[in-house]
Write a structure and sequence with these properties.
The complex is a heterodimer of chains A (412) and B (397).
Chain A lengths: L7 H22 L2 H4 L8 H9 L18 H14 L1 H21 L2 H13 L4 E5 L26 E5 L2 E12 L4 E8 L8 E6 L5 E5 L9 E12 L8 H9 L7 H23 L1 E2 L2 E2 L4 H29 L1 H5 L8 H23 L10 H14 L3 H13 L7 H8 L1
Helix pairs in contact in A: 1-4, 4-5, 4-8, 4-9, 5-7, 5-8, 7-14, 8-9, 8-11, 8-12, 9-11, 11-12, 11-13
Chain B lengths: L6 H27 L9 H9 L18 H14 L1 H20 L2 H13 L5 E4 L7 H4 L12 E5 L2 E12 L6 E7 L6 H4 E7 L5 E6 L10 E12 L3 E2 L5 H4 L10 H30 L1 E2 L2 E2 L4 H29 L6 H24 L8 H11 L1 H4 L3 H12 L1
Parallel strand pairs in B: 1-4
Antiparallel strand pairs in B: 2-3, 3-7, 4-5, 5-8, 6-7, 9-10
Helix pairs in contact in B: 1-3, 3-4, 3-9, 3-10, 4-9, 9-10, 9-11, 10-11, 11-12
Chain lengths: 412, 397
């Protein structure tokens, strides 16, 4: 039964995170020196606190030490965190999602014994998936409605040497790379028909991480180079791991975490504008009493609530495949729908919110410039909304492509 | 209808294009990168441009300037902004206030200030209106005497004593001479109780506070002005006591002094950003490949570039018409409409440019990021609700 009645647990965790954001995250994030986008150092102490609250392992099953949060709960938490800070939300949602995929779905007992205790014990032990390679192109673009002209080849290789694997290659734009304790690395093993995934501890010899200074991506990310990097033979994940990781990374029907993060950014801008519109008096009355401002705030509220509905519906569909199977929900790439609508709604919201702040809206050390920048990043991260629309068009046209998974992995 | 430029207009345009290509563009991204707001300004480029006339070109010839017409000024602003919007604004801000000097100052005041301005390559002008608690209120003055600016002026013999502060004032940290709006009568509405003063930067009791950390227009500095018993001679009152808002063209009556030129200025500057975005997008689409083919081969890229050029050329027509109307002394609300339009077009065109370019994984090109931030500045001063309603009132006037 399709229902968006939240459970008592979901309501409670939402309130808890909202409180954490108000008390801890906002005061730290909204300082002028920290707001400047030239200096967006990660707030490590807050990440520690969040980890102790269980947010780093949120989606990991309860049996394995996590909270077993479903997609909808994860989206609610991510939105709340992002209303405080998009970077904190990005880091935690990446680790939490990977914890579930890796430890609940892709690892055997020996692999879990080797890595799960470290993950559970270390507040600063984050997870990263190293899939994308420099110059790789995951866009649909020219390949719209026709077979891909280019074969996506994974250039990072793993070769067997005795009992070990020797990895060579470079990955780029790897989310969480600078703070990761463990990487899941997409590699090509010579002679195998499709790529495989190896677990690589960040302290393995031959791993070099270079953090990106001003990435067009929330959280932290970087380049990861593997130079004759040796890992034990047992670190190779099962044959289906690459497919499972691709499924989790594919935008169409995946968990709309990035969309929830995007929504959190929009909500922060909206709430700031709403507060300010009550406080600021011009023209003899508070801004909110002026029609010109009322129209903008009303529009923001409408757009954000519809975005939330789209995100929650996509999350619900992910959690309840039966709702799609029995035709309660459309069998469509609902997460992509949420991505396009949310990013455009939030971009407009952030710009209008900034306008309400006047000159303060364009100052780098004030909150609104951060929200506008964060909204732009959401508009243009990944392959952008044009590409998203083309992917939807392929689906509704019934065009089936064989290479969806490879493209998703190349983009992740 | 004749759209031909005169030889003189054409030669200014070419000179501006050359200066923009050879001098401005090479330093544009480097100045944008500087993180300390106080250090983004570069006197070297100002001096070079000044020697070519780009600082003083709005000053009449009889006062030693170049006496260019508005069409020429629009052409030059666009060309300079194509290389760097903020640097173009740093030059044209001087024209804005030279227009005000020509329109509003007495011969005696002109004699005291214009020759110095014309002769000194590092003399730039500014005007202080906005205050921390008076932004929109100054742009649409209210009848309540308690609203509006609070910077107070009290007459003491031949001097006025000023106390209070201004915020976000363009060129404040680098200017030598400022026009300042001062409340000289707090008992009447701002419209009747505000007086315009000429305040040199070395006025005793006057100093510059913080420099604001803008996300766009990094080169062009906005600062805080602090007046603590600042003493200004009565001879520096511009126009009549209590006549500032009338004089600066608050509504209707066009002197082509500061305010209306300011509308043309923002529209022409935005046009430069759009030109930059269009030509860079076209080149990018022709030279970059996706899936083995130039981006240009894709329908969606063709549609995006079509829209960029369509909007930009429509803006150019509007800008040039407004400049021509200023030269013909035709008074209308068109300058304001063009300014509002330039906010929409500037943002849409730079956002389309970003679509064409896309992020390369987690990397975004610095130039793309910069012109987006620059174009966003219009959001609060050219395309906000207050500026649109102000223009609407001109239509009804």
């Amino acid at each position: 039964m399709y229902s968006l009645q939240l459970s008592p647990e979901q309501l409670e965790i939402r309130d808890t995170i909202r409180d954490f954001v108000t008390r801890e995250i906002k005061p730290a994030v909204l300082k002028a020196d920290r707001l400047d986008q030239c200096d967006r150092t990660l707030l490590v102490d807050l990440l520690d606190q969040a980890s102790q609250m269980g947010l780093r392992s949120l989606a990991l099953s309860e049996d394995r030490g996590g909270a077993g949060a479903d997609a909808l709960t994860s989206c609610i938490v991510t939105e709340e965190l992002a209303a405080g800070d998009a970077d904190i939300a990005a880091v935690l949602s990446a680790s939490s999602r990977l914890a579930h995929v890796l430890f609940d779905q892709c690892t055997n007992d020996a692999q879990r014994d080797a890595f799960l205790p470290k993950f559970l014990e270390g507040d600063r032990y984050h997870l990263a998936f190293a899939g994308r390679e420099p110059g790789s192109d995951s866009r649909l673009g020219v390949n719209y409605h026709r077979p891909a002209a280019t074969n996506i080849v994974v250039k990072t290789t793993a070769a067997k040497s005795g009992n070990d694997w020797i990895i060579n290659g470079v990955k780029d734009c790897v989310a969480n790379a600078p703070i990761a304790g463990l990487f899941a690395v997409l590699v090509q093993i010579p002679g195998r028909p499709s790529p495989s995934v190896l677990l690589v501890s960040a302290d393995a010899p031959g791993v070099g991480v270079k953090a990106h200074d001003k990435p067009w991506q929330h959280g932290v990310c970087g380049e990861v180079a593997f130079k004759d990097c040796k890992v034990p033979g047992g670190n190779l994940l099962g044959d289906d791991a690459a497919a499972i990781l691709a499924e989790a990374a594919a935008p169409g029907r995946g968990i709309p975490l990035a969309q929830a993060l995007n929504l959190g950014v929009g909500r922060a801008a909206y709430e700031a504008a709403l507060d300010y519109a009550h406080l600021r008096v011009q023209g003899g009355r508070p801004l909110i009493e002026h029609q010109a401002i009322g129209i903008k705030l009303g529009e923001m509220a409408i757009k954000l609530e519809i975005a939330r509905a789209a995100i929650w519906q996509a999350a619900w569909a992910f959690d309840h495949p039966e709702a799609v199977a029995d035709r309660s929900l459309a069998d469509l790439p609902l997460s992509t729908f949420a991505q396009v609508f949310t990013s455009e709604a939030v971009m407009k919201t952030a710009k209008d919110a900034a306008e309400i702040f006047g000159a303060m809206g364009v100052m780098r050390d004030m909150p609104l410039a951060k929200y506008v920048h964060d909204a732009r990043v959401c508009m243009h991260s990944g392959d952008g909304n044009t590409d998203a629309r083309l992917r939807v068009a392929e689906e509704i046209a019934g065009y089936r492509r064989a290479d969806t998974r490879a493209m998703a992995l190349a983009g992740e | 209808m004749d759209f031909t430029l005169s030889n003189e207009q054409r030669s200014w345009q070419m000179a501006a294009r050359k200066f923009a290509d050879e001098e401005i563009r090479p330093i544009s991204l480097e100045r944008d990168t500087i993180s300390t707001p106080r250090e983004t300004w570069d006197w070297d480029i100002i001096k070079k441009g000044s020697k070519l006339g780009f600082r003083t070109m709005a000053v009449p010839k009889e006062w030693g300037g170049q006496g260019t017409d508005f069409v020429t000024q629009a052409l030059v602003m666009t060309e300079l902004a194509k290389a760097d919007s903020a640097i173009s604004k740093a030059f044209s801000q001087n024209w804005k206030w030279s227009h005000l000097i020509s329109a509003s100052c007495t011969e005696e005041q002109k004699r005291r200030f214009l020759p110095g301005f014309v002769a000194d390559d590092t003399w730039v002008l500014g005007k202080g209106i906005t205050e921390p608690s008076a932004g929109s209120d100054n742009r649409m003055p209210q009848d309540d005497p308690k609203t509006g600016i609070k910077l107070r002026g009290e007459r003491k013999g031949d001097e006025w004593i000023l106390n209070g502060e201004k915020a976000f004032i363009a060129n404040a940290p680098v200017g030598k001479l400022f026009f300042i709006d001062v409340r000289t009568d707090m008992t009447v509405p701002p419209k009747q109780g505000t007086t315009l003063f000429l305040v040199p930067s070395d006025t005793p009791g006057f100093r510059i506070g913080k420099v604001f950390n803008k996300s766009g227009w990094r080169f062009y500095q906005n600062g805080e002005m602090i007046f603590e018993n600042a003493r200004v001679p009565h001879a520096n009152v511009v126009g009549e006591v209590g006549g500032a808002i009338k004089k600066a063209g608050g509504s209707g009556g066009d002197t082509t002094g500061g305010d209306l030129f300011g509308d043309l200025e923002l529209a022409a500057n935005a046009l430069g950003i759009c030109d930059d975005a269009c030509s860079t997008a076209l080149k990018f689409a022709e030279t970059h490949k996706q899936g083995g083919q130039p981006l240009w081969a894709q329908q969606n890229v063709q549609l995006q570039i079509n829209k960029m050029f369509m909007l930009t050329e429509a803006l150019r027509s509007f800008v040039m018409r407004v400049a021509w109307e200023h030269d013909m002394k035709i008074h209308s609300a068109n300058a304001g409409l063009a300014m509002n339009y330039s906010c929409d077009v500037g943002q849409e065109v730079t956002e389309l440019y970003m679509e064409v370019r896309g992020a390369d994984g987690c990397h975004m090109d610095h130039h793309t990021d910069k012109i987006l931030r620059d174009a966003f500045i219009w959001n609060h001063l050219a395309g906000d609700s207050v500026s649109r309603m102000k223009v609407a009132k001109r239509l009804a006037a």
